[in-house]
Amino acid sequence: MASPLTIVMAQLNLIVGDIPGNTQTILHAAREAVRDHHADVVVYPELSLTAYPAEDLLLRPSLAPRINTALQQLCDARMDAYLIVGYPLTDNGQLFNAVSVIHEGEIKATYCKQSLPNYQVFDERRYFQSGNSPCIVNIKGLPVALTICEDLWDPLPIRQASQAGVGLLININASPFHTDKLEQRQRLLARRAMESGTPILYVNQVGGQDELVFDGNSMVADADGRVTTVGPAFREALIPVSFRIEQALAWPELSDTASVSVTPDSLPTVPADRDVEQRCYQAMILGLRDYARKNRFSSVILGLSGGIDSALTLALAVDALGADQVTAIMMPFTYTSDLSVRLAAAQAERLHVNYDVIPITDCYQAFAGALANQFAGLPADLTEQNIQARCRGVMLMAISNKKGALVLTTGNKSEIAVGYSTLYGDMAGGFNVLKDASKTLVYRLARYRNAIARADGEADIIPVEVIERPPSAELAPGQQDDDNLPPYDRLDQILALYVESDLGADAIIGHGFDEEEVRRVLRLVDINEYKRRQAPIGVRLTERAFGRDRRYPITQGWAAGE
Description:
It is built from 17 helices and 21 strands. Helix 1 (19-37) packs parallel to helix 2 (63-76), helix 5 (273-294) packs across helix 12 (439-455) and helix 6 crosses helix 12 (439-455). 37% of the residues lie in helices and 20% in strands. Keywords: ATP-binding, Ligase, NAD, Nucleotide-binding. Belongs to the NAD synthetase family.
């Protein structure tokens, strides 16, 4: 006769390093899961006691006693449900990425992660030793195998579990977002379930952590490879899954939480454009909100220029934090058009943010006067343009210091890639929500946000004139971005091939791009690494973002080519 088993996937937004706070969050979720869903088992994300990634906090000498205190608190709670909790385990002077099953006041079983990722944003081999054996635990008569994140991508841990004859495989994760990561996970989960003939329950972390965003989307695949349940994206959730246990085997039953039922061959390679825009926008909101909240900023401030980048940043800030926590400053100069002033004011009024206009003419003239002797006899050039940008940076940072507001910079990935930005000017700030968004994606996101407003019967969030006007930094008379750069649709294709696909100049030229243009763009990317090292962090959207993902030397003599 079949017996029921209810497992709750606890998709939580935890704070890195806050072991006491995370412990209380885990216990609160357990109580809620038992009360509201009659949970037999509650499963938490990877390294949930420290949250992920804890980086060099894992090297602190007080890590082990703090973790031991937290584990004792979980045991002392004596929850009726089995708690499956991830944490860093110190054993004989070595550190492991571990998961334990806690029940009736005891740790019943512990598994140490075998496959340690060391690519892209991951550097787990810096901290952890690899486990070397599977872990099978009996839960209400069901043999359950425990695995952790990367173990799912490596066939060996899954094969070990399958050969042990388990009825269910649980995989806990801290898997960060990029645009098509959901489809990758679904394909992998379905394939591993089919290979092993075992249902797989996949629990993921949610929330922003510096430049990383964890999107949740916890899910379940049945033994036939059908993804039967997908949890919500970009928010916390307790997701109950009901299983029927017969002869030590388990089958997930479809419930109200089920939202996807697919086979591996039916999954798209990449999400549709509309899905990309929605996912990126949600990731940017969550990344900004959590960065501000977890670093105790109650408000943000940005320069609103009347251009597309600052307009989108303002919309994101309002959606993330609320209009009353956002201040926009227009800082006009001689070359600022009346159109820019009007459009900035219109958007600020539309979004009901705090708004002020601070002309920088006097500030610029004071700098120019102070530098007159040094500049004597030298022609005007980019220096004078950069002084304008730096005047604006000084203004925003001064207001930030006085009021404790986080300064948001507004440069997009295309500009940051080729150095079309000013150190200590428009790059001055604490967080850049557009950092991994190309200029072409910025336009798509602006149109997407307006479409959402229109669907709700509201006026455009971003004035159409802002979207349609030619992009310009307005640091010189009649200046436009394409005076200095290739058109963005072409530039972004070259940058994607170089930065995200790691192709060399010859290979990119082979895609049909002009050789001179390609070599010029690649040179700009290479020589501006020093700027990117000093840029604010921002939300990661792609598989190859500047920062944790792409690490190139500043001082180098590599010649562009293959």
